Amino acid sequence: MGWVRRAAPYIHAFGERTFVIGIGGEVLEGDAAKRLAHDCNLLAALEIRLVLVPGARPRIERELARQGLTPVYHRGLRVTDAPALECVKQAMGALRIDIEALFSQGLPNTPMAGSQVRVSSGNFITARPVGVYDGVDYQFTGTVRRIDVEALNAALDSSDIVLVMPHGHSPSGEVFNLCMEEVAEACASALKAEKLVYLCDAPGLVDERGTLVPEVTAEQAEVCLAGARGISEDLGLYLPYAIRAVKNGVHRAHLIDRDLDGGLLLEFFTPEGVGTVVTREPLARVREAVAEDLGAIVGLIQPLEEDGTLVRRGREVLERELDKFSVLEHDGVVAGCAALYAFGEEGTAELACVAVMPDYRRRGLGALILDHMERRARAAGLKALFVLTTRTEHWFLERGFELSDIKSLPRAKRDYYNLQRRSKVFRKTLS
Ligand SMILES: CC(C)(COP(=O)(O)OP(=O)(O)OC[C@H]1O[C@@H](n2cnc3c(N)ncnc32)[C@H](O)[C@@H]1OP(=O)(O)O)[C@@H](O)C(=O)NCCC(=O)NCCS
Description:
This protein is an alpha/beta fold. The protein is built from 14 helices and 23 strands.
């Protein structure tokens, strides 16, 4: 129940927005294809405008093998000669038919029951040849020259799902084999899509500890790519296009584990997501609180007051002391807060009400708030921060605070120290 309720804001936000999903050929084999169809069916039912760009690599390989041909690659890109192009046409034609069949299922007792998803496709892409590199002629391997946005939008207006196969045509009528990741990016950029999604052979980007990195800016992603840090084979292919897309005005690019059942839904409809999202600007920012934030701050700290983590303040006190608060906004949601009570004469300030919403924890947002509060204190000419805590001592210790005692507190604070709470005092000198 909770899961569905928490999805409501996203459902409101995404209606009539365009999502482009690049699907590696591996995902379109077996049961994974069915599960993907179920999820896309649900997205379409929520009035999300869906463009699917399927990859055909495994099928092309099989077709080449059937014809006794050897696949040729140069710099990771297929070289498509005339016989290989025939295999590409066979593979893509069959793939399109299979995908249409996938979305035509509507058996009772399946997630497709009662659905009548219409899938359309068309000649939306003008292509040109890649040309010759290092003396190797790519022949019928092409690159996107233009996307017919008007036709694509018209198809989206009249269909539930638009299928864009990764091939294009030149004005002279030649056919070119294109790579899925480029076509998906070009469509998303041309449509100024809300989301471009790639289903990958990895959970997303990971850091040096192997932990998933839930969000990166395009700039940070470029650094990861240059250092080849946390980059699987698919990520190496998709990340450059994800970066290009957000630079071209696509709102978000997502890299999601292709093996995770329901990965698309979890990524789109939960605040924590399951993959890595690439954005142009950071998703999180800390700013000073304004009157409209009061409700969110109360919502954040009330449960913590009730379980005794924070000292009870009450709404009126919060309202009066709103100027002490900074809030952390994540993707438009107030997901954290902290307050700074300055003791100017002693050159110090109390850091209080540090809180991050449970769904948003363990992704560095608490550290972001702390960093902001330290800068705020420094800007006010203060030399040290102190905090009173009963349950979070290690979090502060790991961020440069040291155990101190009641005697070190500013006089006014000492007089009001609540002996019963037995809070420990931690202090950090601001450099
Ligand atoms: C403390 C709090 C603000 C941290 O927020 P956050 O966004 O998760 O912080 P970060 O992502 O920067 O740090 C997460 C790390 O801190 C650790 N951590 C979280 N709470 C901790 C605690 N009470 N004691 C020690 N470590 C803690 C996490 O385990 C994680 O480390 P790991 O990934 O190595 O395991 C958040 O857990 C919270 O709101 N807690 C309840 C309120 C509270 O205790 N506030 C302090 C009152 S003085």
